[in-house]
Specification:
Layout lengths: L5 H13 L2 E2 H7 L7 H13 L3 E6 L2 E6 L3 H17 L3 H10 L5 H14 L1
């Protein structure tokens, strides 16, 4: 699974949300400044080349749909991030969020309970 650019990831999030869409529909979902239609069409075709989306043809236009599930991408993204930034240490990941005060003691206790209940 190839890494996505920020713009490609933004488009994928829209396609996961809509399930299937024409480029104009994707364009309508983009917040802020909208990219030109041709630029967006190129991004979607790149996603197709990378194996993330496929299309159904309707004459000269295409309706695109994701073929990589959001969960599969999320799992791959987090696995790579943990390997690249935390030396493959989930403990390091949790410590990072604790130090940044992004996770509370209550959240950590809940996570511990979830882990203990799985045993």
């Amino acid at each position: 699974m190839q890494k996505l650019t920020n713009k490609e990831e933004e488009v994928m999030k829209i396609l996961w949300k809509l399930k299937k869409a024409f480029v104009k529909e994707v364009q309508a979902e983009i917040d802020g400044e909208k990219p030109h239609y041709n630029t967006l069409s190129t991004i979607v075709r790149n996603l197709e080349e990378k194996g993330y989306v496929a299309h159904k043809a309707f004459g000269n236009t295409h309706q695109y749909y994701p073929i990589v599930e959001k969960e599969a991408y999320r799992k791959r993204f987090f696995t790579n991030a943990i390997e690249d930034y935390f030396n493959n240490s989930y403990k390091g990941l949790v410590s990072f969020f604790a130090e940044e005060e992004k996770i509370s003691v209550e959240d950590l206790k809940e996570i511990i309970n979830q882990i203990e209940n799985k045993k």
